[in-house]
Structure formats: C-alpha cells, structure tokens
C-alpha cells in the first residue's frame, strides 16, 4: 500500500514539551491518532504565543486548519514526555504549512511526523485572507 509521507524540515525554530495524559490513550493503550492532533494543536498555540500571536489574531487575521497528515513512527504511552519541534514552510499568499517533529524525551526516538496546512481567515468578512506580512517577516 503506498503511503503519503511528511517531509520534515532539517531544522526547527520552536520546541515545547507535552506529557501524554491518560485521556490521550486509545483502546490499544497507546497514544491515539486523535490525541496527536490535540497535542500539535496545543504546541501550535504555544508557538504562536511565543511569536506574539494567537490563533485568532495574527495581525488581525485568524487561522483555519485545512488539512493534516500524520506519519506514526512508534508508540507512545501514558507518562511519556513528548518533545514537539516546530517549523513553518511553504508560505504562500493565503497560508502555509506547519511541521511538527514529535519525539520521546527520554529515548530521543521520533514518535510521529505531522504537517498541518493552514489558511488565514478574516473573521469580519468570513473569507480567506492574505498571509499577513507581519507573519511572513517572522520566517524571512
């Protein structure tokens, strides 16, 4: 079966730690796929805060996640501390991709590679908006 693959960047510009909670486990007893999206959401909020933004206010625009891709590498269990490294790429007129490398802090081994595609959104007009220059400048 052909698989789609997240092509992670070589370097990262932000890092945060998030522990695996009991509510993050699936019926198999390991980190569930839905929880991976919740974990990267939390990491993205922290990343934007680090840049001086929120998901609802990036120089007057908000964001919408339009796609997500997760490549699972290995299991993670309750109590594991995950290191989430983040970088931004493919910045275009209306959005960008955010890349997340998730690793186990204790072992250093990668747990998952994730990419989320976002577009910028004007909450007033309810329309897709241009990528704010203030956001673009953070990565040039």
Order of helices and strands: EHEEEEEH
Question: Quick check: average pLDDT?
Answer: 96
CATH architecture classification:
Roll
Helix content: 10-25%
What's the domain count? Answer: 1
What would CATH call the class?
Alpha Beta
Could you please describe the fold and organization of this structure?
There is one protein chain. This protein has 140 residues and is of the alpha+beta class. The chain has a single domain (14-131), classed as Thiol Ester Dehydrase, Chain A, CATH 3.10.129. Helix content is 17%, strand content 37%. The chain has helices at residues 33-51, 133-137, and strands at residues 14-19, 62-72, 81-89, 95-104, 110-122, 127-129. Strands 1, 2, 3, 4, 5 and 6 form a six-stranded antiparallel beta sheet that branches. A hairpin with a 5-residue loop joins β4 (95-104) and β5 (110-122). The longest helix has 19 residues, at 33-51.
